[in-house]
From TrEMBL:
Species of the source: Frankia casuarinae (strain DSM 45818 / CECT 9043 / HFP020203 / CcI3)
Xref: InterPro entries: FAD-binding_protein, FAD/NAD-bd_sf
Protein name per UniProt: Uncharacterized FAD-dependent dehydrogenase
Length: 455
């Protein structure tokens, strides 16, 4: 089959790729946006009738825009590149991205009480914790399909969208008028030449991008993954945290580089299983109505110099747990913190667990000792701010892993140094950790491509 040509190809239709495509104003022969997962309507249908975990993590919208939809508007959260720019420029970009992504969908902005946030910050400091405050707009799992459908319609006017199509190879093109050649696997074209390529494969594509990086000799720093679980309890068990913000970020920094933090708090929501290229992990989501009688948060840790873990180590650990237990495991908090009198809170009642069929497990045996110790220490510190955390009937589900990806080196335009026309954006290259951060890197790449096309 003859190769087709495009001015720009965007690999991955998550937040980074979508915004890169949205901001790329390119001449003929146009723009191709591809993703290995389903298109919007297929994802919506599969979510209601199919048990495949990858419907949550792959497809148009990526993982973040088909799960919980938290838009965190802060230069301090979710990005390793925002610090390069003036905070006012970052704020303006993020608010513009917020408008583009929502595509008319209404969602309240939470976390506007600066005085309450400052008081909570002081309380956290007394407990040896850092509280990072930022405004969050929670769109909600129920609103995301409508939002994505509108965005899909807008992008179809400026790009060829090809879902169920993966990029299996990329190399410099032998043609003088195009820089890159891509080999694709999907129902349509199999080979493409392009002036520019934006690689935005998300976390599910981090391993593939690592292979591409080695083949092309791209600069990067090794990943430092965080490992942990989802802590689930009755709906109000995180109440003191959620009074301040909808996605509170509480961090403990211990000796020798140890760090533990909350991540992606889901009020009135569910813990869900998610497939990342054959590995089963836990995630969380909530609708805009927060209708469930339970809430959850990821608690993730790195043991720093006491136990330096690589991404391969994390994958091996997860694969072993999945293999031994047939997927995820669950454990009562009272069993994870044995021989310790646990305070209970009258404000925290019963709840129906999200995953009652999760295999019984023991995180103290499954996780390295240094990780277990860090997680246990953090839970006790967190309980000084939020006593309901230590209710013995709270539940743990895992494993949860964040920061799989090596951090690739990029310019301020998200271009790989020494590789003209090759842009890296989002979570896959380790540059971001969330919807807005990923989208912002896509914005920067798209603007750079537009500027280049107009020269």
């Amino acid at each position: 089959m003859n190769a087709r040509v495009f001015h720009t190809v965007v690999v991955g239709a998550g937040p980074g790729g979508l915004i890169a495509a949205y901001r790329s104003d390119v001449p003929a022969p146009g723009l191709l946006l591809l993703d290995g997962g389903d298109d919007v309507e297929e994802r919506i249908g599969a979510l209601g009738s199919d048990s495949r975990g990858d419907v949550v993590t792959r497809g148009f919208g990526g993982a973040g825009l088909f799960s919980d939809g938290k838009l965190c508007l802060s230069p301090r959260i979710g990005s390793t590149v925002s610090h390069r720019f003036d905070p006012s420029r970052v704020s303006a970009r993020q608010h513009a991205i917020d408008e583009v992504l929502r595509s008319g969908e209404r969602a309240d902005l939470h976390g506007g009480d600066a005085e309450a946030a400052e008081n909570f910050e002081k309380r956290a400091k007394v407990a040896g914790l850092e509280y990072v405050h930022y405004p969050v707009r929670h769109v909600g799992t129920d609103q995301l399909p409508r939002m994505l459908s509108r965005l899909r319609t807008r992008l179809a006017a400026r790009a060829t969208v090809a879902c169920r199509t993966t990029c299996i190879g990329i190399r410099p093109s032998g043609r003088s008028d195009f820089r890159w050649e891509l080999e694709l696997d999907g129902p349509g074209v199999r080979r493409v030449h392009a002036v520019n390529v934006v690689l935005a494969p998300g976390k599910v594509g981090a391993s593939w991008l690592g292979d591409v990086g080695r083949e092309l000799g791209l600069g990067r720093d090794d990943a430092q993954p965080k490992i942990g679980f989802r802590l689930e309890g009755a709906k109000e068990f995180l109440g003191p945290l959620l009074e301040i913000a909808t996605d509170p970020k509480v961090i403990w920094s211990g000796p020798d580089g140890v760090e533990v933090r909350t991540h992606c708090v889901c009020y009135g929501g569910d813990v869900v299983a998610a497939d990342y290229h054959g590995l089963t992990l836990v995630g969380g989501h909530a609708t805009s109505a927060h209708a469930e009688n339970r809430s959850n948060s990821a608690i993730i840790a790195t043991a720093g110099r006491r136990l330096p873990l690589t991404a391969d180590d994390a994958r091996t650990l997860v694969a072993a747990i999945n293999r031994r237990h047939g997927g995820l495991i669950g454990q009562r908090l009272g069993a994870f913190l044995p021989d310790t009198p646990l305070p209970t809170s009258q404000a925290v009642g019963e709840f129906v667990p999200s995953l009652p069929d999760a295999a019984p497990g023991d995180f103290t045996a499954e996780f390295p000792t240094a990780i277990v110790s860090a997680l246990q220490t953090f839970l006790f510190r967190l309980a000084s701010l939020c006593p309901g955390v230590l209710h013995p009937d709270n539940f743990l589900y895992g494993p949860a892993v964040e920061r799989w990806a090596s951090r690739f080196t990029v310019t301020d335009e998200m271009e790989a140094p020494g590789q003209p026309g090759l842009y890296l954006v989002g979570d896959g290259p380790g540059l971001t950790g969330g919807i807005i951060g990923a989208a912002e890197t896509g914005w920067l790449a798209g603007d750079a491509i537009t500027a280049q096309a107009r020269r």
